[in-house]
Amino acid sequence: MQMADTPYQFPDASGHFGPYGGIFVAETLMPALAELREAYAACQNDPEFIAEFEYELKHYVGRPSPIYHARRWSEILGGAQIYLKREDLNHTGAHKVNNCIGQAMVARRMGKPRVIAETGAGQHGVATATVAARYGMECVVYMGSEDVKRQAANVYRMKLLGATVVPVESGSKTLKDALNEAMRDWVTNVADTFYIIGTVAGPHPYPMMVRDFQSVIGKECLEQMPDMVGRQPDYVLACVGGGSNAMGIFHPYIGVPGVKLVGVEAAGDGLDTGRHSASLTAGRPGVLHGNRTYLLQDEDGQIIETHSVSAGLDYPGVGPEHAWLKDTARAEYVGITDAEALEAFHKLCRLEGIIPALESSHALAYAAKLAPTLPKDKILLVNLSGRGDKDMHTVAERSGLQF
Amino acid sequence: MSRIQTVFQRLQADGRKALIPFVTAGFPAPELTLPLMNALVEGGADIVELGVPFSDPMADGPTIQRASERALAQGMSLRKVLETVRAFRATNADTPVVLMGYANPIEAMGQERFVAAAHEAGVDGVLVVDYPPEECVSFAATAKAGGLDPIFLLAPTSGEQRFADVARAGSGYIYYVSLKGVTGSAKLDVDEVARRIPEIRAAVGMPVGVGFGIRDADSAQRIGAVADAVVIGSRIIEEIETNPGEEVARVRDFMRSIRAALDALAAGKGAQA
């Protein structure tokens, strides 16, 4: 859990990353968050907790995940070399499980027998259900009823793992509404329930805690890259919805000079169409879901419906630390459309024999744009945050096929 | 002295309890909000809480969320809420109006612009559900300086430190959320409320209103026996929802039943809590 040796010290004691982050929740949740802050602070400094977390990551998740040189694809692109951090090879098929194990361990130490989670595509729900089964905890997952329909296979996976999936009918019936509903459950059942948030957003300490658990990704890269290529990469790229896989790989690199950090948001049908999920690129700061951050909102401050071909990026907010990295220009944020992401998806399938998640395909697509503009000795490290098995239906439909 | 303080002083002198109903602005239709506010006052409201609809009302239950969605679908906005208050003030100079809502519409307008516009429209207080005291030191100060009482929530889970925090940041009254959960929940533990209120009132030095879970004359009377004010929200929204076309009359009648129960209490005829 030790941070890289850098002067970057965020968030502050009250959970702020400059003007972002904080604790914007109703009074009913304040004591629960205070209890969580104390519990997490104790875990952070407990060698036993750290050792157990590392043991679980190694033996249950299968870490460290390898880094793979996408040689054929790099050659065809004709520029910089592309390396992939293979989070898709983790147990459950994505980076999400790193965080779920960490939070479930905190929940166990707090004596909370019940965990709840929100999920969009179902990946975080599956990871939470998996970990709840592993630790023998009751698990309830809130999922927008639209997503329940779109992600039937993941709903079944969660049920197989013993979780109860609650379809949410309010609002746009997607991720943000599932998050609202999970918060309501937590307010009501706070005494015995731990809320496992799936991304680096929400009220303090969640953005920090989720980042810390996901930082294992970047920490491994810091060691693996010199072993593989003798140095650190020139660019680190990752897709950003809420931003947990990006923060996990970025954070250990924040203090490393010369490494450019690029977050790739979902530009959907195009930023000018209004149908996208690019909160950092096209939104403005506001308050939602417990933190101040960039949001997609109308003039009156109402949250607007978002769109992306990848359900995991389909969220109107973003983690507050990304907002801070954007404003301080330590990271750059760009948009990739559905069409560009799908093209990269197919390229990776055909050229490297890897089926990437549609979320990760956004980062791959930007790498494919960037690589040809750079000399061959430059290195791009892309966080391949998840595998694409879950996206078979979406991709087939887009290609005019049906199972 | 603010309109809110004036109301509580007058009630206290009479030995009566404040009745504070809540309606979501723009529900069931924007043009019905003003008549509904007037009906609340005719039915015995001492203060009117007007909900500013928000797309993601995390602390509200399904009833108020549904009302917010319908209001937004008909174009309700923070600006239009302020216009409605201005229209209300044209015929009512005495009944305080408190806006209740979420932070983002206020942030989108700008905190200072909001305070100035709200005060100018005749708003007396503002309760921002997701602005706890530690996140709104400057907003609370701006509100007070601009003539708005910043009103804060306390919950069954709040400890003594929280009492001190809201006492420092808030003014007007304190809104005690009588149960764990969201608005409109069913379980109300009157004994627990009765135990907490004197302790809270002493700590904050302000009147304490109780809301969340008060649904009828009986529960209003039992809460009124221990609190300074009774807040009713979801139950009124349900009355509106289930009586299309007769909303205004039904809300006025419902309010009268609650008012009578509270005044019976003042006259010493009420149930002992």
TrEMBL record, chain A:
Keyword flag Calcium: no
EC number: 4.2.1.20
Biological role stated in the UniProt entry: The beta subunit is responsible for the synthesis of L-tryptophan from indole and L-serine.
Stated family: Belongs to the TrpB family.
Gene3D superfamilies named among the record's database cross-references: 3.40.50.1100
Protein name from the UniProt record: Tryptophan synthase beta chain
InterPro entries the record matches: Trp_synth_b_CS, Trp_synth_beta, Trp_synth_beta/beta-like, TrpB-like_PALP, TrpB-like_PALP_sf
UniProtKB/TrEMBL annotation, chain B:
Active site (record annotation): 49 (proton acceptor), 60 (proton acceptor)
Amino-acid biosynthesis as UniProt keyword: yes
Biological or metabolic pathway of the protein: Amino-acid biosynthesis; L-tryptophan biosynthesis; L-tryptophan from chorismate: step 5/5
Family under the similarity heading: Belongs to the TrpA family.
Pfam families hit by this protein: Trp_syntA
SUPFAM superfamilies named in the record: Ribulose-phoshate binding barrel
GO molecular function per UniProt: tryptophan synthase activity
Gene giving rise to this polypeptide: trpA
Alphabetical list of PANTHER family matching this protein: TRYPTOPHAN SYNTHASE ALPHA CHAIN, CHLOROPLASTIC (PTHR43406:SF1), TRYPTOPHAN SYNTHASE, ALPHA CHAIN (PTHR43406)
Gene Ontology cellular component terms for the protein in this record: cytosol
EC number assigned by the record: 4.2.1.20
Function: The alpha subunit is responsible for the aldol cleavage of indoleglycerol phosphate to indole and glyceraldehyde 3-phosphate.
Family annotation (NCBIfam families): trpA (TIGR00262)
Residues making up the signal peptide according to the UniProt record: none
Coiled coil start-end: none
Protein name: Tryptophan synthase alpha chain
Catalysed reactions, semicolon-separated: (1S,2R)-1-C-(indol-3-yl)glycerol 3-phosphate + L-serine = D-glyceraldehyde 3-phosphate + L-tryptophan + H2O
